[in-house]
């Protein structure tokens, strides 16, 4: 799916440079979703992350 970049499988450093970021949509990475389709397990996962960080810090 080439919505944001022409060659999505290739790693191109130019895509993450600060001067190029204004062309991309803000908040494009949202692993838990937003709106009515928001993931119901988000709070559980956040608690799980806290426990993992406490265990390994």
Quick structural summary:
With 57 residues, this protein is mainly alpha-helical. It is 26% helix and 0% strand. It contains one helix and no strands.
Taking the alpha carbons of the first and last residues, their distance comes to 39 Å
Q: Tell me the major beta sheet.
A: none
Tell me the total number of β-strands: 0
How many distinct helices?
1
Radius of gyration: 16 Å
Structural class: mainly alpha
Q: Helical proportion? A: 25-40%
Number of domains: 1
Order of helices and strands: H
What form results from the Cα inertia axes?
Answer: flat
Q: Stretches where pLDDT falls below 50 for ≥5 residues?
A: none
How is the quaternary structure best described? single chain
Strand content: under 5%
Query: Please, what is the average pLDDT?
Result: 78
Reconstruct the topology from this structure:
Layout: H1 42-56
GO molecular function: heme binding; iron ion binding; monooxygenase activity; oxidoreductase activity, acting on paired donors, with incorporation or reduction of molecular oxygen
Family: Belongs to the cytochrome P450 family.
Pfam families: p450
What does this structure look like?
- The protein is built from one helix and no strands.
- The chain is an all-alpha fold and 57 residues long.
- The chain has one domain.
List keywords for this structure.
57 residues; 1 helix; 0% strand; Cyt_P450; monooxygenase
